[in-house]
Model the fold of this input.
Amino acid sequence: DQQVKQNSPSLSVQEGRISILNCDYTNSMFDYFLWYKKYPAEGPTFLISISSIKDKNEDGRFTVFLNKSAKHLSLHIVPSQPGDSAVYFCAAKQGGSEKLVFGKGTKLTVNP
Amino acid sequence: EAQVTQNPRYLITVTGKKLTVTCSQNMNHEYMSWYRQDPGLGLRQIYYSMNVEVTDKGDVPEGYKVSRKEKRNFPLILESPSPNQTSLYFCASSPDRVETNEKLFFGSGTQLSVL
Done:
């Protein structure tokens, strides 16, 4: 049973526009959420996170929004740049657990 | 340079031939973990270790072994590899328990093919 779902395998946007990547989760015990970015031939790198006590966290061009009632989070990238082209993984964990649960990933392509 | 180093980057082997993928981190991290990435399945945790001599199963531990004799090293052992273990493997580490520091640092990956 997939607890973290990224239903869009791919997304294509124009440079300068907003990229919105979505993630849904089923486990209401999750209390911390993260986004990782992965370039080809490299390991994933941490991008941004949010605690369940917040509904928004911003870091430069990247903002993560959390809607706990809908069990949904989204990553907004504004403005999108070609260098943002990568696979983005959503991950979640619950308090007391050592385990991060990852989604399948969404491949973002930002076209010049 | 702070990093997680995996070796080899690419490995082709045959069914049943024991192999070890090494992982080393130079950041004095307590927590280390192994993941596999498969198309359409994302990253799935194989094993993790919270400290030396402490290891535990992740979501997909079958067919794998690990050891944590030293803080910096966390090798992944496939005693009798099978074709369904063909995958991209990532080692990761974190300064502390994942519940207090969730930011994992990943290695560059090992692409394993089992024929």
